[in-house]
Amino acid sequence: MTNPNYFELFGLPTSFTIDNDALATRYRDLQKMVHPDKFADAPERERRLAMEKATLINSAFQTLKQPIHRAQYLLELQGIALNNENDTFMDGQFLMAQMELRETLAEIKTQADPLTALSKFLATLQQQTQQLLDKLNQHCTKADWHAARNSVRQLQFFNRLQEEAIQLEETLL
């Protein structure tokens, strides 16, 4: 069984911008159709197929729900891989900005009010992430997959940095 296009599965256009409410509604509808209770008395094969379909629906929903995963999936549909370990080239200016952000994060622990500093840092990070998501949307709309790929890779950096900031927040609380 080949996996269908996730966008088609949910009846959505293949696009970076999606209607999240429609996604959630369609997810609930699809899950109802393959709920295990509906197949409790069904033959083993039908129960297994329903479980496989439910797993596919869950995976598709998680992919489409998160902008970075949705963008990665769009690139995958275009035959563009992101996980090539030999592909480490990044824009020098972006890398310098990342190093500065990491230094700022590392210095937060030593500040007089680290929680306030961290809150400001996270707000700045969120703003930059949103700007990058807007750029990514433009690239996908124009089908500029090379630029979209670069934006996704940059988003991956921001996501890791945000995870590190949240871990720091947990240690400060």
Summary, kept brief:
The protein is mainly alpha-helical and 173 residues long.
Features of the shown structure:
mainly alpha; Helix Hairpins; Monooxygenase; globular; chaperone; Co-chaperone protein HscB homolog; J_dom_sf; DnaJ_domain
Enter the CATH topology name of the largest domain: Monooxygenase
Largest sheet: none
Query: What is the β-strand count?
Result: 0
State the domain count.
2
CATH architectural category of the largest domain: Up-down Bundle
CA radius of gyration: 20 Å
How many H/I helical runs? Answer: 7
Distance between the termini: 48 Å
Strand content: under 5%
Mean pLDDT: 91
Order of helices and strands: HHHHHHH
The assigned structural class equals: mainly alpha
Write down the overall geometry: globular
Helix content: over 70%
Q: Low-confidence segments, ≥5 residues, pLDDT <50?
A: none
CATH superfamily of the largest domain: HscB, C-terminal domain
CATH class of the largest domain: Mainly Alpha
3D structure, described in words:
Interacts with HscA and stimulates its ATPase activity. Pfam families: DnaJ, HSCB_C. This protein is an all-alpha fold. The protein has 2 domains: 60 residues, DnaJ domain (Helix Hairpins, Orthogonal Bundle); 81 residues, Monooxygenase (Up-down Bundle), CATH 1.20.1280.20. The chain is 72% helix and 0% strand. The protein has 7 helices and no strands. Helix 3 packs across helix 4. The longest helix is centred in the last third of the chain and has 28 residues.
